[in-house]
Amino acid sequence: MNLFKKGQIGKMKLKNRVIMAPMGTKPESDGSYTPNAINYFEERAKGGVGLIITGANIATTKYEERPENELSNFHNVEKLAVLVERCHHHGAKVCVQITPGLGRMVYADPFNPPYSASDEAYSFWFPELRCRQLTVDDIHYLVDKIGYSASLAKAAGADSVELHGYGGYLMDQFHSSMWNKRTDEYGGSLENRLRFSTEAIASIKKYCGEDFPVLMKFTAYHGIEGGRELDEGIEMAKIFEAAGVSALHVDVGCYEVWYKAITTVYEEPMHQIFATKAIKAAVNIPVIGQGKLNDPKDAEAVLENGYADFIGLAHQMLADPYWLQKVKQGHIDQINPCIGCNECLLGGFSGKHYYCAVNPLCYAEKDYQLTPATEKKRVLVVGGGPGGMEAAIAAAERGFDVQLWEKDMRLGGNLHAAGYPTFKKDVLKLVAYMERRILRLNVDVHYGKAATAEEILAGDFDKVIIATGSKSKMPPIPGIEYAATANDYLTGKKTPKDKVVIIGGGLVGCETALYMTELAEEVTVVEMLDDILKTVVHSKNNDLSLRHRIAATDIQLLTSVAVKEITQEAVIIKKDEQEVSVPADTVIIAAGYDPINELEEALEDHLDVTVVGDAVASRKIMDAVHEAYHAIRVM
After folding, report:
1. How far is CA 248 from CA 50, 556, 585, 632, in A?
2. Helix (H) or strand (E) holding 163
3. How many CA atoms lie within 13 A of 616 on its CB side?
């Protein structure tokens, strides 16, 4: 059926109205979809979603290199057709997203200006680089190429197309007076600024026919000074409806506040729905809502309250492609939760594919499957953090006899510290999910069990996974005895007094500082480098969200300083060759972590041993989970 044909929406429950929102994939050298990308989409179709919207497909590379896949020529159709057919086999519809380009968002180099709506826009990545304005002839060329690109999607069997008109990308640059300073028919009034898009809609209809569904994904609210306010977003929706689009996909934010568009661990659930609700009330065509709707109760509430007609999920579908199937079956507690780390996005922007920290099978659905054990082996996992839990789960799923030894009385390791702040509860959802899997798989867990080499050697194990994690560093600062680790405060073991000084401005230090503002009167971060978060490797939207949260508080940031001494009343620092006393009745150390691994050397000559996660070096959840999974997979 035509999913967006008027009158066919009706009253449907959540299970019928979930869409996989756009999440791009890396192309082959010719711009076509890779076999892994096809498998990736097929797996989400198997999971039961009603509609899959691909990531952006560029209609022409005349003005910029392709950002993801390309759909400009007939040879691009073949692999797209395979993707569509595979998804159709599982009952999912496919919508192909088409873009004229990224405009000022192109990440190229600081020497070649990108094209944009006007030459008064500047490159986002190279702020001194002024953009080139597309001519009227250029716009006409793009409009025609968008229509032709849509016809290629239709030829491939796609059920609809979606215009990539959001997030500060090229089409949205035309929409916004912030970047569009033109004085011709494509600038000035709102109708003129939307002309490029409405002509693109008409072009698609010319090439594909009036009945072929066209979705418009647009940004109703930017959330930055000088950006679009919601009242203009509402007017845009009305214009797009009049232009004949079949449905509106509502977005919020742009790269300057990227976390408003692409959710991080720090955002609240349903944070975009205020805009979706306003658009839904203003138009008579279906509206797609998105923005951290991972919890089925939140998604259902959006539909029940009439704030949207369809629910869009993207990152959650990477974490668990079977989200919808589990919801339909009432197995909500078996959903692998997205934790908002955005390792997926970081991978994509690092030139790789879209990894998922909590799902090692993401983008490797055919390659990395666990196979049933051909012989019964005994596996010991030492340590119950994310790596240890993942190793135990994978071993049990393969059919091995597995034991998990954890020295504490609970599983989770340092995830408890990572997820303790009020704004990071998503991490604790991962702990609970993995605990439930271990319980269902009847893994033999030994709590309060500190492993020794002698006991392990006596256990007759075929494989040992060392996942003993890491411990907080305590730097050799005079007076260090007056301080405690960030973990002590991030697990509730210690409570701060009034004046908190945190030594270390990395990720843990900054998150601890933010959390301490809820408990203390004054919070100061001292950092030896010239900026906070300097050594952290995380996605840009996570970085922006955390920095903006810190900027909204009274946290004092002291950078380029050396800590000389800690006393009972202060932290003595040296800045610009002068010693300064910073008053403190609570001193917290966030100077990183050292691996805990006393077992490997004693065991490696006697047993098959693999060390994973922080026991190798202090790193990320993804490192621990993936290393543990693959250590078991290749046994």
Report:
1. 16, 43, 54, 45
2. strand 160-165
3. 16
**Residue 483 bridge partners (DSSP):** 587
**Amino acid at site 344:** C
Q: State the DSSP H helix or E strand holding residue 386, giving kind and residue range, or none if neither.
A: helix 386-398
Residue of 93, 77, 80 lying closest to 44 (CA atoms): 93
Over the stretch 625-635, which tens digit does the pLDDT of each residue have? 999 999 999 99
Q: Which residues pair with 214 in a beta bridge?
A: 161
**Cα–Cα nearest to 504, from 542, 475, 545:** 475
C-alpha span between 192 and 196 (Å, rounded): 8
Count CB atoms within 10 A of the CB of residue 374: 8
Segment (H or E) for 440: helix 425-440
Contact 249, 218 (CB under 8 A): yes
pTM of the model: 0.94
Three-state SS string across 581-615, please? Answer: EEECCEEEECCCEEECCCCHHHHCCCCCEEECHHH
Give the tokens for residue 59.
């209609």
Q: Report the distance separating Cα 87 and Cα 51, nearest Å.
A: 9
Which are the catalytic amino acids?
169
Category of 31 on φ-ψ map: left (φ > 0), alpha (ψ -120 to 50) or beta: left
pLDDT in tens, 55-108: 999 999 999 988 789 999 999 999 999 999 999 999 999 999 999 999 999 987
**Residues near 278 by Cβ (< 8 Å), separated by ≥ 6?**
220, 230, 233, 234
CA 310/CA 301 separation, integer angstroms: 12
Determine the 3-state secondary structure of 475 from DSSP.
coil
Listed residue (437, 512, 365) closest to 42, CA to CA: 365
Reading the block at residue 312, the tokens are 């869009």
Dist CA 380 CA 465 (whole Å): 6
Question: How high is the pLDDT of residue 3?
Answer: 42
Q: Where do we find the tokens 């991490």?
A: 427
Q: Which of 385, 575, 566 is nearest to 474 (CA)?
A: 566
For 1, the 3-state DSSP assignment is coil
φ and ψ at residue 594, rounded to 5 degrees = -110, 140
Beta strands, E only, 486-555: 499-503, 522-527
Q: Which helix (H) or strand (E) holds 366?
A: none
Cβ distance 475 to 489 under 8 Å?
no
Q: Is 461 helix (H, G, I), strand (E, B) or coil?
A: coil
- Identify whether the C-beta of residue 137 lies closer than 8 Å to the C-beta of residue 194: no
pLDDT over 70 percentage in the chain: 97
Rounded to whole angstroms, the Cα distance separating 33 from 40 reads: 11
Structure tokens at 25: 């994939």
